[in-house]
Amino acid sequence: MQFSDSVSDDPSVRHTMEILNFKCEFVGEMQQDLADYVVHSEECLSKLQRTYQAAQRNGDLRTGISPKMAAMETLVFLTGLLRLRLLGVPALQTRRELNALIAAHVDSRRQAG
């Protein structure tokens, strides 16, 4: 939590983390690229939330988790998964490993039955 607060509350920490994570500064023309990424992330979040709402209506979403929270967790999961794969983390380089990880994530959202 403290790290997350630092990124949110301290513009210099946020700026440094953006450069370290994205390997560029989002200034000038690049600011629009970052804004576009945020828009696309929000669109993905909205689609995921609708999917989880449908799962909830069908009785397939695990009790105790809201469609909004499930959608946010899935977006963070997918974003992190992609980032770690692109970084070359060995455990995430095979299709079998990826499929198993994604299946575990999906199963954690399912209603026990």
UniProtKB/TrEMBL annotation:
Domain (Transcription regulator MAATS C-terminal) ranges: 6-107
Organism, as annotated: Caldimonas mangrovi
Keywords (A to Z) from UniProt: Repressor, Transcription, Transcription regulation
InterPro entries tied to this protein: Tet_transcr_reg_TetR-rel_C_sf (IPR036271), Tscrpt_reg_MAATS_C (IPR013572)
Highest taxon of the lineage: Bacteria
The protein's name in its UniProt record: Transcription regulator MAATS C-terminal domain-containing protein
One protein family per Pfam: TetR_C_2
Database matches in SUPFAM superfamilies: Tetracyclin repressor-like, C-terminal domain
Record flagged with keyword Transcription: yes
